[in-house]
């Protein structure tokens, strides 16, 4: 059971691109006064646009480029070394577009959290919005979950749901899902920062205080 005292938890965020989820986390942490600090933002590519924004906020940044490494294991080892410089309590994958090795995932077991743009277990992997449209589901969304060695799988902390509307393109649906990502993700990471999240023996998640863990998109939001 994590301590819910005044501990300040250290968070490292991993990104691959524009970093709008990372930005939502940083802003919520500051504006809501989480008992946490964003210790670093680390990108899987040097041209990740989010790096510039994070650096402008005074956050430590770093980038590793997978093409500079001979293997997935070598990249993950270098990534872990960079992360460990910041001694994080939690490592948050915010649009981090790389499959991680089991060694990396196990190193951060119980401390590694991802957001995936679908209602898992539906649509793991890429192109989730096109997959949703192709199957005709009427509801789609996002999932914040602990990471296990199985891709886009693991104990669910929170989900956000959006309707699929007539005439939606993958881009329109992605935009709607992103809005609910920006609600569900900061709230779920805040629960982590507050030490309220535990994993149960049957691989489910408990959140102290039993808050609503389903976020629902509304057109007015
Ligand atoms: C988000 O939809 C995230 O769920 C997915 O990729 C997108 C990243 O967006 N994995 P951003 O970089 O956070 O803006």
Name the CATH superfamily classification of the largest domain.
Formyl transferase, N-terminal domain
E-strand count: 10
The tally of domains stands at 2
Task: Give the ligands present.
Answer: 5-O-phosphono-beta-D-ribofuranosylamine
In which range does the helix fraction lie?
25-40%
Beta-strand share of residues: 15-25%
| Number of DSSP helical runs | 6
CATH class of the largest domain: Alpha Beta
Shape: globular
- Mean pLDDT, nearest integer? 95
Describe the structure in your own words.
The chain is α/β, with parallel strands linked by helices and 221 residues long. It has six helices and ten strands. The protein is 32% helix and 24% strand. Strands 3-2-1-4-5-6-7-10 form an eight-stranded mixed sheet, sandwiched between helices. A two-stranded antiparallel ribbon has the order 8-9. It is globular. The model has no long low-confidence stretch (mean pLDDT 95). Belongs to the GART family. It is an enzyme of class 2 (transferase). It catalyses: N(1)-(5-phospho-beta-D-ribosyl)glycinamide + (6R)-10-formyltetrahydrofolate = N(2)-formyl-N(1)-(5-phospho-beta-D-ribosyl)glycinamide + (6S)-5,6,7,8-tetrahydrofolate + H(+). Pathway: Purine metabolism; IMP biosynthesis via de novo pathway; N(2)-formyl-N(1)-(5-phospho-D-ribosyl)glycinamide from N(1)-(5-phospho-D-ribosyl)glycinamide (10-formyl THF route): step 1/1.
